Amino acid sequence: MYPTLESMGINSFENIEKYTLRYEGGFDVLKIYYRREKGSLLPKSKKFKFGRATRTVLADGGQQQYREVSEPSLVVLRAVDELGRLLGQEFEDKLTKEDLVKELDHLERVMASKIAEIKEKIEKLS
To answer: In degrees rounded to 5, what are phi and psi of residue 9?
Structure first.
């Protein structure tokens, strides 16, 4: 039913809540979020990185100037199409202020946790 998602190791389609797709450091990053019960040991999300294909195209027909253009991988395009069908096109590509605030709060918690972990390692070395 969803061959691309299955090839990526995604099996529990009924638990997929939403997904995000962004461009980061030369890669397309697809993150799939799952509905999980409180206390579940299963991950709440999975992240996949896809390289981009580059090709040279004629930029200006009159002067024979070429430029490189990067394109998303066919795998990520197929995965996003399958996710759209799976979620019934409920997913909207536009971000809201609330979404960005939640993402920033999550990032702050992750960074604070990582900083505390590194400080603890430094203390153990002293």
So the answer is: 90, 15
> Is residue 86 located within the same domain as residue 100?
no
- Indicate the residue type of 89: Q
Q: Give the domain extent around 104.
A: 94-125
Taking residues 37-43, report their average pLDDT.
88
Total domains in the fold of the chain: 2
pLDDT recorded at residue 90: 53
- Taking the CB of residue 31, how many other CB atoms lie within 10 A of it? 14
pLDDT digits (tens, 9 = 90+) for 53-110: 888 877 776 677 777 788 888 899 999 999 988 887 654 555 678 878 888 888 898 8
Residues 47 and 16 in one domain: yes
Based on the domain organization, do 85 and 99 belong to the same domain? no
3-state secondary structure of 70: strand
β-sheet bridge partners, residue 32: 19, 46
Q: Are residues 99 and 77 in the same domain?
A: no
Which residue, 52, 48, 55, is CA-closest to 32? 48
Query: Is there a contact between 66 and 57 (Cβ–Cβ < 8 Å)?
Result: yes
